Predict the structure.
Amino acid sequence: MKILVAVKRVIDYNVQIRVKEDGSGIVTDNVKMSTNPPDDNAIEEAVKIKEAGKATEVVAISVGEEKAQETVRKALAVGADRGILVKAEGTVEPLAVSKILQKIVEKEKPDLVFMGKQAIDDDCNQTGQMLAALLNWPQATFASKIKVKEKSLEVTREIDEGLETIEVNVPAIVTCDLRLNEPRYASLPNIMKAKKKQIEQINASDLGIDTKPRIDQIKVEEPPKRKAGIKVASVEELVQKLKNEAKVI
Ligand code: AMP
């Protein structure tokens, strides 16, 4: 079984996001970039399945600028066997990414595609679902547990009401939740070994995919500053304020 894992390069989740002064976007110069957090869970799960002898190859893929190679390289350092970088400049929206992944799936013929449930930069939560639709494959989104069976997967999903367990036939798309596992750190020897692993580079235009954004970003602004809270002297005062001022009870 072969597993393709999509990893996106995003601003590190610890970075305090700053909006550009002209409101045209956010500051990305000299900002630390990392793998989108749930994509680390997706790689970890694929590598664990391979270590359990249930997969033969894990291939990591990223779509983006040349520097997204670092994201693929990190996936190689934690156990992926080989990498693919599909080069495209600027913002590549979920539909274009899913069309690119569709082409790569047709070429690589994986049995499973693992992805993150959501990218923390655009918060779209669309790419996996769109890819499933384009390929006409079953999808299991927000996976917090995956059990590999003979020709199917049993996937526990995080939903508003709690947990749901479904079974999907392979080939399938799985989007991973942060609760799925604890991603491992890349050890220094493995980082060194990853340097020798192969990363194939492909231009998005050579795949015949137009990556031009379809969405016009009109303005980006900081959320309004939160007002300072107040202290009340007693429970009675709190209830009175909730009733008469906030009008929430
Ligand atoms: P989104 O639909 O943008 O929230 O992204 C959901 C998931 O799709 C991410 O967690 C990644 O696994 C994958 N993905 C989105 N964009 C890219 C990209 N440019 N390169 C690789 N994977 C991506």
Q: What stands out?
A: The radius of gyration is 21 Å. Residues 6-8, 36, 38-39, 62-64, 92, 94, 97, 115-116, 118-119, 122, 124-128 surround adenosine monophosphate (CB under 6 Å). The longest strand covers residues 139-148. The CA atoms of residues 47 and 79 lie 6 Å apart.
